[in-house]
Amino acid sequence: MAKVNSNYGKLADSYLFAEIAKRAATFTRDNPNATIYKLGIGDTTEAITPHVLEGLRRGVEKLGDVRTYSGYGNEQGNKALREAIAVFYTQRGVCLDSSEIFVSDGAKTDSANIQSIFSQDSVVAVQDPAYPVYVDSNVASGRTGEFNKERGQYDDLVYMPCNSENDFVPQIPSNLSGRKFPDLIYLCSPNNPTGAVMSRKSLEEFVGAARENKSIIIFDAAYSWYINDQNLPQSIYEIAGAKECAIEINSFSKIAGFTGVRLGWAVVPKQAVTEDSEAGTLNRMWNRRQTTFFNGASNIAQDGGLEAFSPKGKEECSGLVNYYMNNAKMIRQGLELLNIKVFGGDNAPYLWMQNPNGIGSWEFFDKMLR
Amino acid sequence: MAKVNSNYGKLADSYLFAEIAKRAATFTRDNPNATIYKLGIGDTTEAITPHVLEGLRRGVEKLGDVRTYSGYGNEQGNKALREAIAVFYTQRGVCLDSSEIFVSDGAKTDSANIQSIFSQDSVVAVQDPAYPVYVDSNVASGRTGEFNKERGQYDDLVYMPCNSENDFVPQIPSNLSGRKFPDLIYLCSPNNPTGAVMSRKSLEEFVGAARENKSIIIFDAAYSWYINDQNLPQSIYEIAGAKECAIEINSFSKIAGFTGVRLGWAVVPKQAVTEDSEAGTLNRMWNRRQTTFFNGASNIAQDGGLEAFSPKGKEECSGLVNYYMNNAKMIRQGLELLNIKVFGGDNAPYLWMQNPNGIGSWEFFDKMLR
Fold it and tell me: CB B302: neighbour CB atoms within 10 A?
């Protein structure tokens, strides 16, 4: 008699986007001629740039000719693309072997699946607020208690508050009331949704604590191209010792406009270790996970991704990034003119604002809509 | 102190393809001018057909123009494609709502991930031999015991032998020596690797037993287009009552040559129930799983898939299927001329042969190679 995974019963519904859609639909019905700018989901809107598009075109054309056709590729990604990503890291002063890079169909899948190679009883820490995927993937996999409606938090999950008092920079978990130090720590910088970027010093503290406690940091760097300030780290591997304790996840979505094309990568360094594993083990486990549960990113997407890392492609992608950063700047300036306090938008496309006069989020949403 | 998922330690290495690659490499070194035909992995070799290629091209061109650009799509797949798949099923006499169809990046990922919505203590049954993904995904998720090297099998996994004595058709598990009837039963028909196809009667027996025991059948129909004999079911939903107890997985890989493009789908009917869930629950759980762990198949691949289901596209895909079936026929005839006993190849591209004179598999492999 089959039974379901009861952890799914713990998952709180994500009312947020459903409620946004409902209110927007009502408004549109009443105001059929109004144009709505949707600022809720961090999606891309601009066309894929000419040179990168050529890569996608070439990917398609190769499949139309039996002499260049390719079937199953390597689950870990095409060798040329893995090597191009390794070269990309050298510009950040980071040396990686291409066998430490795993091409995927995007940062969301990697963020969600990475927990599966760790022990079921791992204690997990997330920033608050956080990209819901870090939380939900661990809830569904049984690493949390029930959802506490009063607190709006899951039991047995460690939350690292990020708010205006700490400049939206997470603090290393302390005050654990007898609980063990977290085994898995999710960090997202530049942050979705607050737009805050972790400083070198702050990341050094996390790397130090992770090494001391033999914890693993899952570092989501999907927005790293949006960093203007050259003093801010774009990769966690710019921090000494990070290869021993950190997995980095990245994406072509917000670089090249690939949100619909689906392409990303994860770095699992060979030096990364846990309490019960030696160097190389985590890398081999992720390789086993990907070769068993995944069949490689689309070969068309990979041909496009390769062009995004060519000199011409990178120039184009920087143009896209500048476009989205200008949008953020415009919104920020507009809000500041109204004396609204705004965070982010300097080194990230995200803005996080303080509602004026203490009004609630939904009330402000309705004000914006109307 | 982070620890790894210890179930990965149980996974037996897949020596098969590594050993094939090693022997082939040695041979190539010694015989640099020899052409090797690789018959090991069921990969596609023929170019994508003109009309389907047009779909892929259109998918790319849309992304190059801001007026037609699209970012994140629905995790469940584009509405038009889900509806086209539903129409495809009506030709098999099966009515499905498009909300029961979940587009994915291929049958491998769905086959591997589907177990995650079921209870950790589920008893799993697989055909022997079986596509390794069914086994390995459950080993990694902790549903089996250790690998028994002597038997070449995992403890606590139920094997349904498929051999020449039972025409490679699995029997409903019995002789369970006190163990409970399996909760999850993986069936692949047409079968990878044996080429056997389950009859209507045989599938009816499985559906009957699954309903009686409230078990769930995971039905892999990736090769269903290869069925010539109109008396053989192409979908498990052609069997009355199957919607209550079966999830079906399918793919564009072997229809349209999409092994590298990555596109497939899973059907989770609303009527499907387990011991502890009502109608609709499994469908909602898979929806939650896909929206949390996945971000949709590539929009380019989906535009190609849509054309594969157009009248012209279907005609082209049938041509591809015929090509691979002719290959199987040629190999079969050649082997039969040598008085070698061969199974499959009638309604599946796979052939399964009996080594002559009782020689071992690797000995025969070397004979073929040389």
Answer: 24
For the domain A79-312, what is the CATH code?
3.40.640.10
Three-class secondary structure assignment of B154-222? ECCCEEEECCHHHCCCCCCCCCCCCCCCCCEEEEECCCCCCCCCCCHHHHHHHHHHHHHHCCEEEEECC
| Residue B356 binned pLDDT confidence (cut-offs 50, 70, 90) | confident
In Å, how far is B274's CA from the nearest CA of chain A? Answer: 5
- Burial code (b: 16+ CB inside 10 Å, e: under 16) for A106-134 equals bbbbbbbbbbbbbbbebbbbbbbbbbbbb
Q: Which residue has the tokens 């001018």?
A: B33
Picking from B173, B175, B184, B172, the residue whose alpha carbon sits closest to that of residue B123 is: B184
Name residue, tokens 């090991």. B40
Token pair listed for A216: 């693993």
Contact criterion met (CB below 8 Å) for A98 and A79: yes
Task: Give the residue from A189, A245, A262 showing the smallest Cα distance to A220.
Answer: A189
C-alpha distances (whole Å) from B30 to each of A154, B162, B329, B362, B367 are 62, 38, 31, 19, 15
- Residue A182's SS3 state is coil
Tens-digit pLDDT profile for residues B280-309: 999 999 999 999 999 999 999 999 999 999
Amino acid at A253: S
The domain A15-47+313-369 belongs to what CATH superfamily?
Answer: Aspartate Aminotransferase, domain 1 (3.90.1150.10)
Among candidate residues A141, A145, A217, A137, the one with its CA nearest the CA of residue A183: A217
CA distance A130 to A134: 7
Tens of pLDDT, residue by residue over B302-332, are 999 999 999 999 999 999 999 999 999 999 9
Domain ranges, ordered by start, for chain A: 15-47+313-369, 79-312
Which class is B1-370 in CATH? Answer: alpha beta
Helices A15-30 & A361-369 angle (0-180, nearest 10): 30
What's the CA gap between B171 and B205, in Å, rounded?
9
Which of A1, A64, A300 is nearest residue B300 as measured by Cβ atoms?
A: A300
Rounded to two decimals, what is the model's pTM?
0.96
Q: Which of residues 73-102 of B touch A (CB under 8 A)?
A: 73
Task: Return all residues near A243 (Cβ < 8 A) that are at least 6 apart.
Answer: A237, A269, A271, A272
Query: Could you tell me which chain A residue has the CA closest to the CA of B274?
Result: A2
Please tell me the predicted confidence (pLDDT) of residue B41: 79
Residues in chain B: 370
- CB B274 to CB A6 under 8 A? no
Chain A stretch 306-345, residues whose beta carbon is closer than 8 A to a beta carbon of chain B: none
Interface test with A, best of B300, B323, B324 (most A CBs within 10 A): B300
With contact defined as beta carbons under 8 Å apart, do A45 and B71 qualify?
A: yes
Contact A274 B105 (CB under 8 A): no
Among candidate residues A290, A272, A292, the one with its CA nearest the CA of residue A282: A272
Could you tell me if B69 lies within 8 Å of chain A, comparing CB atoms? yes
SS3 B139: helix
Question: Looking at residue B148, what is its pLDDT?
Answer: 94
User: Quick check: A1 and B214 CB within 8 A?
Assistant: yes
| DSSP code per residue over B78-92 | -HHHHHHHHHHHHTT
Contact A4 B285 (CB under 8 A): yes
